[in-house]
Amino acid sequence: MQYITAGESHGPQLTAIVSGVPAGLKISEQQINADLARRQSGYGRGGRMAIETDTVRVVSGVRFGQTLGSPITLVVENRDWKNWTDRMSVFGKAPADLKREVQPRPGHADLVGVLKTNSEDCRDILERSSARETAARVAAAGIAREFLADLGVEIKSYVTSIGSVSMPEDDPMGAAPYYKPLDIELSECRCPDAAATEAMKAEIDAAKEAGESLGGTFRVVVTGLLPGLGTYVSGPDRLTSRLGAALFSIPAIKGVEFGLGFEAARRVGSKVHDPIVLDPAKGFTRTSNNAGGLEGGMTSSMPLIATVAMKPIPTLMTPLATVNLDTLEVEEASKERSDTCAVPAAAVVAEGEIAFVLAQAYMEKFGADNMADIKASIKAYEKRLRTVSR
């Protein structure tokens, strides 16, 4: 299962095509729209969120609420397109009063993009490199999430820090699976700690007042996974490799840790690796989860836990210095309507990216034609595992 997206930030629409989807999977527009709404929420979002109310339109690959096994096309319309029709027209001549973007923003794709493509307008770059594109990813990921949910796999995320404010956690790897989803979803910062949420909001308010932006960290937790997804045979195909690549594909992501991550490098081996035990009900399991659910590039059946770092958004209301592409003189970088903080939104996008990787891993192991055969293969696999652990 994989996806491709198309569309610009201020174009008519964003489009996603998801291929490799098994037949017989029930799809809910309401669930996809709920995920799109979660992506748009979060304290510190900018004015664009007041314009857009993202909803999905499924135009192929689904009949009467079930997948057909053919590519699924999803469309998310850009309401702001009506304000950009002349400036973003697909054909015709550019308007006489068109303002080119020639003051590239430090930290953005603007400058490197125009150098790469020989463009004279940063807008040719920023329209596609904008995080607005992730709305199409979240819509597409709704298919992968429905697939995993049908197999008993649950994905959630929560914010652990924004700026200098961190949520207190004594044992993140032990506690992560047990944070209540309702506490996360009711928090304006997607943080299950109420006191930390308020401190994060104050940090965001101060940054907005100063014309600054803020990054932070969030954690994605997946439960209900079977052991043995992924492989140890090929480096690029290890689940760790695929998950890392998927998470780094999200704009502004600068770091990914699985389980203890960098903390594991500071401990001795006996304080890192998770003892194996045989549970009468669960079979082989671990007494701790420092590995974050991944061993040797494969799932261990423990909760998969990834912690992700996002840098501050590069669009600043108090801009940094740049070089004007026309005059080659030092000027302030351009300002584009933006967020002060989008860490909670990035966490939702990350859920979707992880969902696609895991969905593909399930289909590589258990088949990809239809849900009935996939479930039958899983049932046989679970039966064999029960036999081995006796």
Taking all Cα atoms into account, the compactness measure Rg is: 22 Å
Percent helix, as a range, is 25-40%
Task: Give me the secondary-structure category.
Answer: alpha+beta
Helix and strand element order: EEHHEEEEHHHEEHHHEHEEEEEEEEHH
Low-confidence stretches: none
How would you characterize the largest beta sheet? 5 strands, antiparallel
Number of beta-strand segments: 17
Number of helices: 11
* Oligomer classification: single chain
Average predicted local confidence, pLDDT: 94
Based on Cα principal axes, name the global outline: globular
* Beta-strand share of residues: 15-25%
Termini separation comes to 34 Å
Question: Descriptors for this entry?
Answer:
390 residues, alpha+beta, four-stranded antiparallel β-sheet, 11 helices, 17 strands, 32% helix, 20% strand
What order do the helices and strands come in, and which of them pair?
Blueprint: E1 2-6, E2 13-19, H1 29-40, H2 48-51, E3 56-60, E4 62-63, E5 66-67, E6 72-77, H3 110-117, H4 123-129, H5 134-150, E7 154-162, E8 165-166, H6 172-175, H7 181-186, H8 194-209, E9 216-223, H9 239-248, E10 253-258, E11 276-279, E12 283-286, E13 294-295, E14 298-299, E15 304-310, E16 321-323, E17 330-332, H10 343-366, H11 371-388
Antiparallel strand pairs: 1-2, 2-6, 3-6, 4-5, 7-8, 7-9, 9-15, 10-15, 11-12, 13-14, 16-17
